[in-house]
Amino acid sequence: MMQKPKIWALALILIAAGAVQAEAQSRSGLVSVANGSRFQLQGSNLWVRLYGIETCDLEQRAFFNGVGWPCGIVAAGWLTQITLGYAIKCIDEGSAEYATFYGRCFLPSGEDIAKLALEKGMAIAKRVNGEPIEESYGLIEAEAREKKAGVWSSNFQSGGNFYRAAD
């Protein structure tokens, strides 16, 4: 008879530990944008890199009919515009280069920031062995490319690859 209370107590402890771990994987707060795909959660030392996308570097230029424009600054400005003053929620997707973690991040409306960046042509889908790491992101990128949105109106480089403006 004494075993049941011990089992229930153990079960409650395990459930509580799981809830604490799940909470640790989700972080939110106001952000300070560093570039088109990376920001710092204010009041912390946590840097987030948006999961599944890449953007032009800050000093990078794209070329529209031979005329250069600062695609990195435009991407950073766009990210600042949509996040400024909002509590952004990020789900930890693992450790990242140049950041504390990769985050799948959302506006208060629930919209996925990386998907929005892809739709607007502010980002391209991050690839491994030529394939997008998130299949749906590749599809969204293809739609943006077809519409000549953002960087898809121009020639640019990313990750050592050269991209031509959509035909």
From TrEMBL:
It comes from the Bacteria. Residues 24-154 form the TNase-like domain. Keywords: Endonuclease, Hydrolase, Nuclease, Signal. Residues 1-22 form the signal peptide. GO terms for molecular function: endonuclease activity. Gene3D superfamilies: 2.40.50.90. InterPro entries: SNase_OB-fold_sf, Staphylococal_nuclease_OB-fold. This is Endonuclease YncB(Thermonuclease family). It comes from Pseudaminobacter salicylatoxidans. The lineage of its organism: Bacteria, Pseudomonadati, Pseudomonadota, Alphaproteobacteria, Hyphomicrobiales.
